[in-house]
Amino acid sequence: MSIQALVTTNTGSAASSVQALEPDALGEGDVTVAVEWSTINYKDGLALAGAGIMQSYPMVGGIDLAGVVETSEDPAFKPGDRVLVNGWGLSQTHNGGYARKARVPGAWLIPTPEAFSNRQAMAIGTAGYTAMLCVLALEHGGMTPQRGDILVTGANGGVGSIAIALLSGLGYRVLASTGRAEEADYLRGLGAAEILDRAELSAPGRPIGKERWVGAVDSVGSHTLANVLAHTAYRGVVAACGLAQGMDLPGSMAPFILRNITLAGIDSVNAPRPVRIEAWTRLARDLNLDKLTSTITEVGLADVPKVAAEILKGQVRGRTVVNLNR
């Protein structure tokens, strides 16, 4: 039986459409999952735009999926198990979550925590899992609420929204940097204590400046990250996980040498399985589900290309979940 999927092709320019996919086209793997939910991340926007994420075509996008095991040759999983996948080769070298079925290696699967429905797991998705990896990096660097304020850049996005909810729930005073002043109430509802205009950070700045925060979660990169580092307090920690402004880092060594700060790079795609399990265990413990609900917008499979384009323009707030049965 054919499978409904959003397939991306590229014959000079990328285009995506809902098509019927034959089961044999799903790809290699020892577990078949009936996919119920996926999500749309910034990386998904890049993938569907043909920005070098997908390494071959045609390809089913979607770097996240959650659903129920249908068949399994991996003894760790059995039919009926609720599972999720974040990253690995999805939407790069392997068909991803924008299909009603997926065939993947069992080693990629994580049991969905009992605290979350499959929909909630995808409302978290790679963005929320990355936000928790950032929190773990801050803690590894010695951050505690008593140390001082934590800045979150790209605050309206998926990583930023969940990072604010997590950090505020853990007792941190959170500063939220955004270019959309009209979203201030949304950010305060997630737990932000203060709203900063992203223009304060997005232009070229001084190599080192006044200490304004002790730590940060940055999903923007480029001049923004350079300015975040320049204003980080002594022995502070910055977790960098995104490049919405650019891949460059036009900064100085001054903050590292004069203030002994740490820049922690965050990779969610190839993180080892124990790290993933730790992150999802902490999400189940520390994430306020009411705050998570306030971030969610739901769409169907056919809506994905439009939303993926909007996310690249910074026009999407919070988390967008994709209902594969809609």
Overview of the structural elements:
Helix 2 (118-140) crosses helix 3 (158-169). The chain has 326 residues and is α/β, with parallel strands linked by helices. The protein is globular and about 60 Å long. The strands form three sheets. Strands 3, 5, 6, 7, 8, 15 and 16 form a seven-stranded mixed β-sheet that branches. A six-stranded parallel β-sheet has the order 11-10-9-12-13-14, sandwiched between helices. The two termini are 18 Å apart. The protein has helices at residues 42-48, 118-140, 158-169, 184-190, 199-202, 222-230, 254-258, 273-286, 289-294, 304-312, and strands at residues 3-10, 14-21, 31-40, 59-60, 64-72, 82-86, 101-104, 110-111, 150-152, 174-178, 192-197, 213-218, 232-240, 262-265, 296-300, 319-323. It is 29% helix and 28% strand. The longest helix is centred in the middle third of the chain and has 23 residues, at 118-140. It contains ten helices and 16 strands. The protein folds into two domains: 3-112 and 295-323, Medium-chain alcohol dehydrogenases, catalytic domain (Quinone Oxidoreductase, Chain A, domain 1, Alpha-Beta Complex), CATH 3.90.180; 126-265, Rossmann fold, CATH 3.40.50.720.
Tell me briefly what this model is.
This protein has 326 residues and is α/β, with parallel strands linked by helices.
Sequence-ordered SSE layout with sheet pairings:
Elements: E1 3-10, E2 14-21, E3 31-40, H1 42-48, E4 59-60, E5 64-72, E6 82-86, E7 101-104, E8 110-111, H2 118-140, E9 150-152, H3 158-169, E10 174-178, H4 184-190, E11 192-197, H5 199-202, E12 213-218, H6 222-230, E13 232-240, H7 254-258, E14 262-265, H8 273-286, H9 289-294, E15 296-300, H10 304-312, E16 319-323
Parallel strand pairs: 9-10, 9-12, 10-11, 12-13, 13-14, 15-16
Antiparallel strand pairs: 1-2, 1-4, 3-5, 3-7, 3-16, 5-6, 6-8
